[in-house]
Amino acid sequence: MSALLEELDTWLDANWDPDMSVAAWWELLGLARWAAPSLPTHAFGRDVARNEAIAIAKHIAAKGALNAPGGLGMLLAAPTIATHGTPEQVERFVKPIVTGAQAWCQLFSEPGAGSDLAGLGTRAVIDGEEWVVNGQKVWTSSGHIADMGMLIARSAPDVPKHQGISWFAFDMHQPSVEVRPLREMTGRALFNEVFLSDARVADSALIGGPHNGWAVANTTLAYERSGLGAGAGAPMALANPGTIAGDLPKRAGDYVVKQRSPGAGGGGAMTAGAQRLFIEMAKQNGMIADPSVRQALMKLHTLSEIGRFTTLRQKAMRERGQDLPGAGNIAKLSMSDIVRQSRDLGLAITGAYGTLHAYDGAHRAALDAATGNPFFGHITEMALFAQGPPIYGGTDQVQRNIIGERVLGLPKEPNNDRTMSWSELPKNG
Question: Domain 260-394 is in which class?
Answer without folding.
Answer: mainly alpha
